[in-house]
Amino acid sequence: MSVDVVVAVPAFLDITFVGLEGLPALGEERFAGDLVRTPGGGAITAIGAARLGLSTALAAPLGDDEAGDLIGPMIEREGVQLVGRRCPRTPVTAVMPIGQERAMVTYDPGVRARAADIAALSPGAVIVGLSQLDVVPYGARAYVSVGDDDARAFAGRLPGGVSKVRGLFIEQREALVLTGAETAAEAAAMIGARVPLVVVSLGADGAVASIEGRAASVEGFDVGHSVDTTGAGDLYVAAWAWGEAVGMSVDDTLRWAALYAALSVRVPTGAGGATTLAEFVAEGARRGLPAPPQGVGAG
Q1: SS3 assignment, position 50
Q2: 166: Cβ contacts below 8 Å, ≥ 6 apart
Q3: Is the pTM of this model over 0.70?
Q4: What is the homologous superfamily of the domain 5-20+33-286 according to CATH?
């Protein structure tokens, strides 16, 4: 059996407080307009990849608990295959989005995907964190998604295994922590000395990149009011995997992936913001992006 992409980044139950006007100070209480529970973390990437038409598996262990029982069926309904063992507890994140930012509190028991589970799927691509490079099987394209925890853990010292990575994707705040650089462009160049493709997201302002040592950038897309930026980076990686899987050029993939991430902020939750292929291709055409390779985008 072979799949287009396996996501090994930890999956979470995201509990999102929708409609907050501000974060409470110590001793204060604030009220949200709604509370929703959705798959988070690597599950957002997996759902995005599946909605873009890629055969997708999620190898991040879910807990044998109520949280895992809740989000497991949600993920499978998206056409994502769940592989590997269950663990005692599911990682959980409380998400508080406010405008262009969000605050999060996370519990993560630290159980990760096994190399054997991923290799058994003969994936074309694997999406992992910086601490998981050893689970990528030979011959698979490795895409690394760097979050706050990995940025702090590997600050100033990229792991040796990063040399086998195809692309690394990181947000500006984390990129500055990871590299010690003063600007996103400087951070992209520093990481680009080790990794062929590096994208540093600037949120609503687009992204800067290092492509085989060449500096590149993409402007942000105006998608209207931002409701929740959670998961935009996760969906950027999903769209990049899609672009390369369908044979799109690197520069076109940079633009299409930036659009996919931008579209996600219009609704609550990262999983909710994963646009379907047909809508995505239509949005790209409306904004003048180069058409995907022939036969792609029927959805």
Answers
A1: helix
A2: 125, 141, 142, 143, 196, 197, 244
A3: yes
A4: Ribokinase (3.40.1190.20)
